[in-house]
Specification:
The chain has three domains: about 70 residues, no CATH class; about 80 residues, Beta-grasp domain (Ubiquitin-like (UB roll)), CATH 3.10.20; about 70 residues, DNA polymerase, domain 1 (Orthogonal Bundle), CATH 1.10.150.120. Helices cover about 40% and strands about 10% of the residues. The protein has a five-stranded mixed sheet with strand order 2-1-5-3-4, with helices on both faces. Strand 1 and strand 2 form a beta hairpin. Helix 1 packs antiparallel against helix 4, helix 3 packs antiparallel against helix 4 and helix 7 crosses helix 10. The radius of gyration is 49 Å and the shape is rod-shaped.
Length: about 280
């Protein structure tokens, strides 16, 4: 930019008459130096308007072209002979390649470890891994050996249909089926039932259809508060496969292990007899 201004200030480039360049033109060329082609194009657009004579315009074109060519970046020159710096740089590159190549080939390839699902409860101290078959589905779980089947169902397997009443085997609210037989789950350890087929109130219905005992309890209103109902139904469903007399007294005796604190025994017996007749 300073060189072009010096060219314009030379006496042989000035026209016969004195002209002043527009202020916007000077402000534009105070910006960073544009590319040579762009500079030549902008200067020509200003002076081709008849401001300067032909000979003067030709000299400006030639000077601007020469300056643009000088401003072009020159390619870096490569030494035609080996220098000490060039030799040391090449030597360092070769040494690095020779040193790291064996390490790349000898590095062992670590195979990703297979991802295994964590067993629920495995982080509990003293827990023992076990498999429980509940309602036709196997559950892999880790429990302490002293955990009862009732607590395992409610607290660990999220099956709250089995109720905890007395926790002493006296009320029958926790009744489940183990291999088809009714069992008080509060008196049995979960670890004792590996390999057994356990059925809870959640698995009594099949394919969305109620068990005949469940339908009979609904028909005869065999419940009031409903807390003992799951145990009553599980006992009644097992009773259908057990030897039991035909009269109501025999049914009461076979169902004596299940207590209803609401006193709905008459309706419970009627529901059991209805289910027995329909079986």
């Amino acid at each position: 930019m300073p060189r072009i201004r010096r060219i314009l200030n030379q006496r042989d480039f000035l026209p016969s008459k004195r002209y002043f360049l527009p202020l916007i033109f000077l402000q534009e060329y105070d910006a960073p130096w544009p590319t040579p082609k762009a500079s030549l194009r902008m200067w020509k657009s200003v002076f081709n308007s008849g401001l300067l004579e032909g000979a003067t315009m030709a000299k400006i074109d030639k000077s601007i072209t020469e300056i643009a060519e000088e401003e072009q970046p020159k390619p870096a020159e490569t030494p035609d002979r080996f220098t000490r710096r060039f030799f040391l740089s090449q030597l360092g590159t070769a040494s690095l390649a020779v040193t790291t190549a064996p390490l790349l080939h000898s590095a062992p390839v670590q195979e990703p470890e297979p991802v295994t699902e964590a067993i629920p409860g495995a982080d509990v101290p003293g827990a023992v891994p076990m498999v429980l078959n509940i309602n036709g589905k196997e559950h892999h779980i880790a429990l302490e050996p002293r955990v009862t089947l009732l607590d395992a169902l409610r607290e660990n397997l999220q099956l709250p249909g089995t109720k905890k009443g007395c926790d002493h085997g006296q009320c029958g609210a926790c009744t489940v089926h183990v291999n088809g037989r009714r069992v008080n789950s509060c008196l049995s350890f979960a670890i004792m039932h590996q390999g057994d087929k356990i059925t809870t109130i959640e698995g009594l219905a099949q394919n969305g259809d109620l068990n005949p005992v469940q339908a009979a309890f609904l028909e005869h209103d065999g419940f009031q508060c409903g807390y003992c109902t799951s145990g009553q139904i599980m006992s009644a469903a097992a009773l259908l496969k057990e030897p039991c007399g035909q009269d109501d007294a025999a049914v009461r005796e076979c169902m004596s292990g299940n207590i209803c604190r609401c006193g709905a025994y008459n309706n419970i017996v009627a529901a059991v007899q209805s289910a027995r007749r329909g079986a």
